[in-house]
Amino acid sequence: MSDLQVLTLSKGVPAQYADLNLLTSNNGRFVDGPVFVSGIDKAVQDLIRGLLTVKGTNALSPNYGTFISSLINAPNLPQINSQLLEQIRFLLGYLNSFNVGQPDSERITDIISIQSKQETRSISLQITLKTADNAVSTVVIS
To answer: In angstroms, what CA-CA distances link 107 with 45, 57, 63, 95?
Structure first.
């Protein structure tokens, strides 16, 4: 089932700010309504949105999200690496139960790799995932 596109990706890196992709014509009118994503693009958007949503801020689903946004600016990667992995595992379990019945192309089944890297003032994560239909994508969050 498709979903509204709220994130734009460039080489696997999400734009800094989420935005609904509403195409407009020269006269300022909407063209064809909002853009929707499906397949692996929806799976990637679900992952990014879940990782960057602060757990407890969604009143309809208080267990949705993670505390990764508070960890990204941590000064020392080795001290928080296990917490990052724990948050990612929790979210994947949540998404797995939430997306039951969705098409195989929209369900993440495996994390192929997670690489974390200490930047000057933050931490970046590179996550390579696989969906149930064996499509693979890489996402970078920093």
So the answer is: 11, 24, 19, 8
How many CB atoms sit inside 10 A of residue 6's CB?
Answer: 17
- Radius of gyration of the chain from its Cα atoms, rounded to whole angstroms: 16
Question: What are the strands, taking DSSP E only, across the chain?
Answer: 3-4, 9-10, 13-14, 22-24, 30-34, 36-37, 108-118, 123-131, 136-141
Which three-class secondary structure state does DSSP give residue 79?
A: helix
In the chain, what are the domains?
Answer: 3-141 (3.10.450.40)
The dihedral built from the CA positions of residue 14, 16, 18 and 21, taken in this order, carries a sign that is: negative
**Whole-prediction pTM value?**
0.75
Judge whether 55 and 66 are in contact, CB under 8 Å: yes
Bridge partners of 99, per DSSP, are none
- Identify the three-state secondary structure at position 47: helix
Which mean pLDDT values do the consecutive 10-residue runs of the chain (142 residues) have? 63 55 64 76 89 89 87 76 89 88 91 86 86 93 78
State how far the Cα of 103 lies from the Cα of 96, in Å rounded to an integer.
Answer: 12
Question: What SS3 state is found at 89?
Answer: helix
